[in-house]
Amino acid sequence: MAVKVSTKWLGNMRFESTNPSGHNLFIDAGEENGGQGEGYRPKALMLSGLAGCSGLDVAALIKKMKLNVEDFNIEIEANLTDEHPKYYDKVAMHFHFFGDDLNEKKLQRAVDLSIEKYCGVMEMFRQFSELKIETHFHKK
């Protein structure tokens, strides 16, 4: 399946990028790199893509398994290499689940299925990063 994204230069360091979903996003460099900081940074956008890909998997599995989860979020910490081309060589993902009636075993299974089977962005990151995944359960 081919995917098409079109990205247009808006001047200076700013771009607008289309998406197959029909939504657009803006990309810009920070002021320290000649931009205005009026958009996503490309490398950070990759981390958002990773969290979003796995998050969608987990959300679908929560629904399918009929799990009681009040809230969940994913936090990512990544190490950027010093030498060009700079890339994330180490990525730590923290899945946080909140609720009074969490089925920890099934939620862990949902996370495992995402990271081991379903999330294609995770598979791409495996090609260049050392990944560390942790799951945290919080009573509300």
Automatic annotation (TrEMBL):
One Pfam family cited in the UniProt record for this chain: OsmC
Organism whose genome encodes this protein: Algibacter luteus
Cited InterPro entries: KH_dom-like_a/b, OsmC/Ohr_fam, OsmC/Ohrsf
Protein name: Putative redox protein
